[in-house]
Amino acid sequence: MSLLREIQNDAVNSNIKVSDLLRRCKVLAYRLGNEDFKTWVDSELNGYESLDGIPSYRIFNNVTSKGHFSGAFGSGLRNADIPSNCFPKEFRKNLTTVSLTAPIAEFESLVINAKKGKLLQQPWDANFVAMFSNKIYKNMVCVQAWKVIPSTKLEGIIDIVKTKILNFVLEIEVI
């Protein structure tokens, strides 16, 4: 079976890991000499080096944040929602947007773990937590905060990558 057919078959097989499929695509990209495809495959396998080159399917808007809060006399809140309107407008976009640069294999692993009940999250920068820790809930201090990432979003990225691969190899076959 040709490499092109193997990639096509694997792209429609739900039991094949996308990271394995991408490695086959890397071979194809080198054989074709397609620099754009090589770059995309390498970025998906190794992660994106900067936010500038990240594809739109790896950026999520309107994510929520949660945190742990501590108050007087041992009071506190755990996993409490953090409303973005507690912050100045210039910080809100950063609080409600997640840009994922990690390698696709990390997403595959996170999705497997999420099915076991693990929460997917992106921690807030500790400096940001410290700067606004007492401005969220009255008489409470935020001690830890994170953005919540639904596992379905990561599954969506994985599916989009598989579909992009399938579209690419089908286009090659037509040529």
| Span of the ends, CA to CA | 19 Å
Structural class: alpha+beta
* Count of distinct strands: 6
How are the strands of the largest sheet arranged? 3-2-6-5
Question: Nearest-angstrom radius of gyration?
Answer: 20 Å
Low-confidence stretches: none
Reported for the largest beta sheet, the result is: 4 strands, antiparallel
Strand content: 15-25%
The helix count comes to: 7
User: On the 0-100 scale, what is the average pLDDT?
Assistant: 92
Residue share in helices? Answer: 40-55%
Shape: elongated
Structural description of this entry:
This protein is α+β, with helices and mostly antiparallel strands. The chain is built from 7 helices and 6 strands; from the N terminus they run H-H-H-E-E-E-H-E-H-E-H-E-H. Helix 1 (3-11) runs antiparallel to helix 2 (18-32). The model has no long low-confidence stretch (mean pLDDT 92).
Topology of this structure?
Blueprint: H1 3-11, H2 18-32, H3 35-46, E1 59-60, E2 65-71, E3 76-82, H4 89-96, E4 98-99, H5 104-114, E5 121-123, H6 126-132, E6 140-148, H7 151-174
